[in-house]
């Protein structure tokens, strides 16, 4: 069973629909026992880091997530979930879970494309990823595949070995982070068409060593 | 680099799409869920649904449509039409839409934007704007005025000022519809689109006037739009999304070519 962590942070139903669609069983839950029992964890979320951390602490989910990480079971972070696993977020200046060392930074106010066009914030829409470190969850991803992003902040791991893939939006930022049994995407695989479903499927059968 | 988005728009009345009667494919014509699935498979980057159901009592039908669409497609979609309160927004988002769009309700009560953004995040609040050219006037310095009720009611609000105010209130995206261009299939209103897009820092979807791929190419370059809404040109089978994207790609515009 895959547990999708429910902490009042956005559209979790879409993650559940996507996981069901590719043939895996999942529950959307905030129940600490269910999470402890689950084989795999998906930690999604949209919204702001400050209120998300408050909500996690209120419900004890911050401990459950750290325990899940320590237990070695596969964890997939998505979007805000990916940011929350870092040490600190500039958004609301909040201390996060600290599972992966590093910060969450705002895109600079005046970023431009290589052609000199002003780029808007949030980074919203479809973009590519460039794989830096081979990872089973990204196996089969083609360089022309695109993924759906919507975010104004990005994760910046201290250790470059944790940067599995990067994306270019005026700056080059970490769009996939990996560390031990955790893999985390800044984009939404559940909203990225077939390439996204492919990644979800890889995750659902991934056995971290 | 970020791709420009191509977004088919479906008008839905009491659970049925109102365009698409000449839609030549093996889809259940008129069923928004089937059409959503078809456009998802055909390479749409996102979908927009407008509920044009007149009766408030029959709005639950739309919520059921949203629920079924959410299970059938794996790209983002937004829902607009008749959204009047934060509770209306919540219902639509919980049914599975990524974004909710507000138009006339926001003109009448701008704080619905800030309340919605606070409750659900800016990324899911789209401001829909219907705009008509009226010439430069004292209270309309840009020459473009906000209208509601399908262009029948002039609100005395300058379109550019309204767009900037909505951004400040927390809108995450703007869907800009030119009433003058809408339905003409003669091209988007490029001057209006460029004016708004260059003066806000949130993404802008251009709407109204698309008839051929060159129109999209113009609005995504000269018009500075981040995305283009299309309706009749795909609903009636004149073009496929793949044909449109191939044309944009060959003129050097970055679009998503694999799906």
Helix content class of chain A: 25-40%
- Which consecutive residue ranges of chain A, at least 5 long each, have pLDDT under 50? none
CATH fold-type name of chain B: TIM Barrel
Classify the oligomer. heterodimer
Rounded to the nearest angstrom, the distance between the terminal CA atoms of chain A is 20 Å
The chain-level structural class of chain B is alpha/beta
Counted beta strands of chain A:
14
Largest sheet of chain B: 8 strands, parallel, barrel
Q: Please indicate the count of domains of chain A.
A: 1
Q: Which class of chain B in CATH terms?
A: Alpha Beta
Number of DSSP helical runs of chain B:
10
Largest sheet of chain A: 8 strands, mixed
Helix content of chain B: 25-40%
Strand order of the largest sheet of chain B: 1-3-4-5-6-9-10-11
- The general outline of chain A is globular
Helix count, DSSP H or I runs of 4 or more residues of chain A: 6
Explain this structure:
The complex is a heterodimer of chains A (about 210) and B (about 260). Chain A has helices at about 15-20, 30-35, 50-60, 60-70, 80-85, 195-205; strands at about 1-5, 25-30, 40-45, 75-80, 90, 95, 100-105, 125-130, 130, 145-150, 155, 165-170, 170-180, 180-185. Chain A is α/β, with parallel strands linked by helices. Chain A has a single domain (about 1-205), classed as Class I glutamine amidotransferase (GATase) domain (Rossmann fold, 3-Layer(aba) Sandwich). Chain A has an 8-stranded mixed beta sheet with strand order 2-1-3-4-14-13-12-9, with helices on both faces. Chain A has a 4-stranded mixed beta sheet with strand order 6-5-7-11. In chain A, strands 8-10 form a two-stranded antiparallel ribbon. In chain A, helix 1 (about 15-20) links the parallel strand 1 (about 1-5) and strand 2 (about 25-30). The longest helix of chain A is centred in the last third of the chain and has 12 residues, at about 195-205. Chain B is globular, with a radius of gyration of 17 Å. Chain B has an 8-stranded parallel β-barrel with strand order 1-3-4-5-6-9-10-11, surrounded by 7 helices. Mean pLDDT of chain B is about 95; it is low at about 20-25. In chain B, strand 9, helix 7 and strand 10 form a beta-alpha-beta unit. At the A-B interface, helix 1, strand 8, strand 10 and helix 6 of A face loops of B.
């Amino acid at each position: 069973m895959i547990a999708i962590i429910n902490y009042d942070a956005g559209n979790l139903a879409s993650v559940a629909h996507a996981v069901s669609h590719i043939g895996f069983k999942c529950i959307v839950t905030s129940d600490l026992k269910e999470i402890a029992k689950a084989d795999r964890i998906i930690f999604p979320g949209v919204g702001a880091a400050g209120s998300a951390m408050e909500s996690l602490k209120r419900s004890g989910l911050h401990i459950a997530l750290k325990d899940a990480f320590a237990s070695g079971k596969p964890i997939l972070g998505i979007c805000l979930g990916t940011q929350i696993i870092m040490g600190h977020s500039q958004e609301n200046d909040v201390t996060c879970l600290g599972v992966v060392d590093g910060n969450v930074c705002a895109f600079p106010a005046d970023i431009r494309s290589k052609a000199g066009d002003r780029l808007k914030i949030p980074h919203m829409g479809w973009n590519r990823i460039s794989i830096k470190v081979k990872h089973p969850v990204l196996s089969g991803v083609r360089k022309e595949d695109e993924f759906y992003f919507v975010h104004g902040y990005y994760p910046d791991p201290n250790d470059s070995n944790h940067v599995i893939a990067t994306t270019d939006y005026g700056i080059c930022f970490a769009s996939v982070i990996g560390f031990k049994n955790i893999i985390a995407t800044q984009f939404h695989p559940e909203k990225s068409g077939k390439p996204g479903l492919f990644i979800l499927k890889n995750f659902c059968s991934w056995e971290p060593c | 680099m970020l791709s420009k988005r191509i977004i088919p728009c479906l008008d839905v009345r009491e659970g049925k799409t109102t365009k698409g009667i000449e839609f030549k494919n093996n889809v259940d014509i008129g069923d928004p869920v089937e059409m959503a699935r078809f456009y998802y498979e055909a390479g749409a980057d996102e979908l927009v649904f407008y509920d044009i159901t007149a009766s408030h009592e029959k709005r639950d039908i739309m919520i059921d449509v949203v629920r079924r669409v959410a299970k059938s497609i794996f790209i983002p979609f937004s829902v607009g039409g008749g959204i009047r309160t934060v509770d209306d927004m919540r219902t639509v988002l919980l049914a599975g839409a990524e974004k909710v769009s507000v138009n006339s309700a926001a003109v009448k009560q701008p704080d619905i934007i800030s309340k919605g953004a606070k409750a659900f995040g800016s990324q899911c609040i789209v401001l829909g704007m219907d705009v008509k050219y009226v010439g430069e006037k004292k209270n309309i310095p840009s020459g473009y005025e906000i209208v509601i009720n399908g262009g029948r009611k002039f609100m005395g609000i300058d379109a550019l000022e309204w767009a900037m105010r909505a951004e400040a209130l927390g809108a995450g995206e703007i869907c800009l519809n030119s009433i003058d261009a809408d339905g003409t299939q003669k091209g988007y209103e490029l001057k209006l689109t460029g004016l708004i897009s260059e003066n806000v820092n949130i993404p802008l979807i251009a709407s109204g006037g698309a008839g051929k791929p060159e129109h999209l190419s113009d609005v995504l370059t000269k018009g500075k739009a981040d995305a283009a809404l299309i309706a009749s040109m795909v609903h009636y089978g004149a073009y496929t999304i793949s044909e449109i994207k191939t044309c944009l790609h060959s003129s050097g515009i970055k679009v998503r070519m694999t799906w």
